[in-house]
Amino acid sequence: MSREYVGGMPRTARASVGALGRSEGGGKMGVTGEKRAAIGKCINMWDALGQWVEWTVDAPADGYHHLTLCYCSEMDKAERELKVNGEVQEPFAPLVFPSTGGWSNGSDDWRLHTAQNPANDQPLLVKFKQGKNVLRLTNTNGRGINVDYLAVTSPDVKVDREGLAAKLKK
What CATH code is assigned to 2-169? Predict the structure, then answer.
């Protein structure tokens, strides 16, 4: 389920994808609407080595974008491998998610995490082709995270939870 934002490229966030509209493999994950401060339903129980989630992102043109996830986790250093259209993004390094302090059961533990380029500690430029793209994240170390949504944005967009949440609620 992708949502295009008013204003188009390149000045605004292009797509946000929630827990729905995705596929999964490598083991059963959950989808719940019971997490505090989540926007709709979120993915939980993504905690087994090899579990993967795919989203389809429809890009209006070829180009490079940033990938940001709204996630929570009591565990530190959960890792996910990023592939787009079956290709590992270069330079390769797993996305590493620091602990947010909890699972958003009784408190708002959600945080934004933008994929980083390990070579320069800047946001990773993720290449999408025009049209439908399959983005896959695979659990590579067996540590769990919950995911509320992911956002694919142009590199010149500054993302924050309030702005993304407002766009997802439209």
Answer: 2.60.120.260
